[in-house]
Amino acid sequence: MNHKILKNIDVFSELSPGEINDFLASAQKKRYPHGSIVIQRGDLGDIIYLILKGSVKVVLTHIEGREIILNVMKTGDYFGEMSVFDYMPRSATIIAEEDCEFLMISREALTNQIRKNPQIALKMLSNMSNKVREMNEQVNCLTNLDAKGRVAQTLLKLSKKAGVIIENGSLIIPRPLVRDIADMSGTSRETVSRILTELTKSGIIGLSKEHIVIYREFETNDKFV
Predict the structure, then answer these.
(1) Is domain 2-143 in CATH 3.40.50.1970, yes or no?
(2) The model's pTM
(3) 50 and 8 Cβ atoms separated by less than 8 Å
(4) pLDDT tens digits for the chain (225 residues)?
(5) Looking at the chain, which residues constitute the CATH 2.60.120.10 domain(s)?
């Protein structure tokens, strides 16, 4: 199972079975229960975490103590690589959204593989660049849009990242919690609930207990944001 997950990740896809075995031989598995802190912002670290099972949220804490969710990652994603490369403290806190299992890869093991396969480093740098771009977009959203715009952009981001394409739009499954949408958009749960109701009445989105539909005709329409 671990072999398959590694091969399905672009960064490690070109490793031979023997090289994957080397990774697995030096790696450790660790489980974290729902709600636990996997990485604390400011801590030192030399480990990359590959998500074998579950999902995590990447958060910063606002000066008022409120969480701001920067990203959500699921099975097959990895995190922690920035501190492995720059030897600096962790830049964000990672919290388990559900019971999780990780494959923990040390700086030494990763460095050894990069010496053999420099392509790994290039792919990881590309991945980190994408993460930085996403974070910049998130900051721009939080600082330049009103509450409705921020909620709308959050829904679009969730749709693009993990949405299921359907005939008349895209489907976000499972339906994200109001609390998480609020934390991602930098607003209150009450405001999110109100805006979701407004967007539903306007025919821009559809809501059920299990999912959110973003109708295609509004996905690129200014009316949505």
Answers:
(1) no
(2) 0.76
(3) no
(4) 567 777 777 788 777 888 888 778 888 999 999 999 999 999 999 999 999 999 999 998 866 667 888 888 988 899 999 999 999 999 999 999 999 999 999 999 889 888 888 888 888 888 888 888 888 887 788 788 899 999 998 998 888 877 788 888 888 988 888 988 998 888 899 999 999 999 999 888 999 989 999 988 766 655 566
(5) 2-143
